[in-house]
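S.,

Sequence below, as promised.
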Amino acid sequence: MTERFIACGKEVLRDGEHFADMRSPGAATAAALLFNRGVLICQNVDEAEFALVREELWG
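The prediction came back faster than expected:
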């Protein structure tokens, strides 16, 4: 299965397009892994905030 998010150096790509710049290649890899697994690791996120995150990342 092809992952939607991939790390390329310090960059995160979504569907092959630039999505985000990270501080290090390791941070980009970690972010891509979390984004691909649909994981939101945050405390105290209300429903409206979660809806925004879900739409921006996976919508």
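The longest strand covers residues 17-21.

Coffee later?
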